[in-house]
Amino acid sequence: MSHDHMNNSMLPTTHPPEHHHSTAAPGHDHGSDMMMMAMTFHFSYENVPLLFSGLIINTPGEMAGAFVAVFFLAMFYEGLKIARECLLRKSQVSIRYNSMPVPGPNGTILMETHKTVGQQMLSFPHLLQTVLHIIQVVVSYFLMLIFMTYNGYLCIAVAAGAGTGYFFFSWKKAVVVDITEHCH
């Protein structure tokens, strides 16, 4: 794949282009200040970037610390999702019930009741939900970017933290099963 169409004058370099030495594949020189990332899963603890350019993992101890931090970040994400659901249930103000007939067994008619709830837009609970939603979106993108480093240790930390968080926080979650829903 040729990158001759790219304007290399915009890329940061420390050497003139004819003297630049790189370990990247020929034709893929992107400047000495840019780090090449692995695009396959690997289990390395050297030169592993973690979200920010100044946050590079270089030792087994740093990788262990990053593993623990990412694990707890993923747990926090799962806890935040459940906390937002609980806050939403507590802040519901208007409740309407709608009943409708549905066919039952042996030609009978059953009445199915649906509860519709709402909340006010200009209220503290809605403002809090909005702020928590922003935090949840940012944390979810951080976890996605961490997983996209393709570092096996960090990927395991994301998955294990999310699973552990779900285990600890979601066990009280109310599960509503709609018998008319066919895509479970």
Describe the protein in words.
The protein has 184 residues and is of the alpha+beta class. The protein is built from 3 helices and 4 strands; from the N terminus they run ββαββαα. The chain has helices at residues 60-90, 124-147, 152-169, and strands at residues 48-50, 52-57, 94-103, 109-118. The protein has a two-stranded antiparallel sheet with strand order 1-2. The chain has a two-stranded antiparallel sheet with strand order 3-4. It is elongated, with a radius of gyration of 25 Å.
SSE string, helix = H, strand = E? Answer: EEHEEHH
* Residues in helix, %: 25-40%
Specify the number of helices.
3
Total strands: 4
The percent range for strand residues is 15-25%
Q: What is the molecular shape?
A: elongated
Query: What is the terminal-to-terminal distance?
Result: 44 Å
Overall pLDDT, averaged? 76
Oligomer: single chain
Main pleated-sheet profile: 2 strands, antiparallel
* Helix/strand class: alpha+beta
In spatial order, strands of the major sheet run 1-2
Gyration radius from CA atoms, angstroms: 25 Å
Low-confidence stretches: 1-31
Secondary-structure topology with pairs:
Layout: E1 48-50, E2 52-57, H1 60-90, E3 94-103, E4 109-118, H2 124-147, H3 152-169
Antiparallel strand pairs: 1-2, 3-4
Helix pairs in contact: 1-2, 1-3
List the defining traits of the structure above.
184 residues; alpha+beta; two-stranded antiparallel sheet; 16% strand; disordered N terminus
